What we know:
Blueprint: E1 2-4, E2 23-24, E3 27-28, E4 34-37, E5 45-52, H1 56-59, E6 63-72, E7 86-88, H2 92-99, E8 104-105, H3 121-124, E9 137-146, H4 159-168, E10 174-182
Antiparallel strand pairs: 1-4, 2-3, 4-7, 5-6, 5-9, 6-8, 9-10
Amino acid sequence: xxxxxxxxxxxxxxxxxxxxxxxxxxxxxxxxxxxxxxxxxxxxxxxxxxxxxxxxxxxxxxxxxxxxxxxxxxxxxxxxxxxxxxxxxxxxxxxxxxxxxxxxxxxxxxxxxxxxxxxxxxxxxxxxxxxxxxxxxxxxxxxxxxxxxxxxxxxxxxxxxxxxxxxxxxxxxxxxxxxxxxxx
Length: 184
């Protein structure tokens, strides 16, 4: 599987320099677009995690920006003859609950009691754009494709539950990763 985007640096609308109308409580909330290509033809569901390993020296843990599970591939508009078979559109995080209610989004690090944020799902269970406080950070988007949905994942799951579900699925999930930079 190949994961790609039309950028290597997260554009301003999806990151630290996002306009106020693209934020929830000051946090960028419009998710960026990306492509998923060369998916195993037997796969039926997508799952992903967008994280910041460069946050470890800053806050003590890898910041989770966005997690998604059990997204039916058939629910996405795609054309196998297109060079980018599956396209995740901009602002998918906010639109997905209405468009594809069977897919679920997990909690991001804004839900952590270490951060002290409120419980607003628009902030804690959606995309949180990059806002590196100290220097440019490199971010990882990991995408997995499975034949079956991962059981037991509901809205607001935690990343460890997604990873456990992938491990315990009995499948060897198709996977891909993309790295992008977020500007300080």
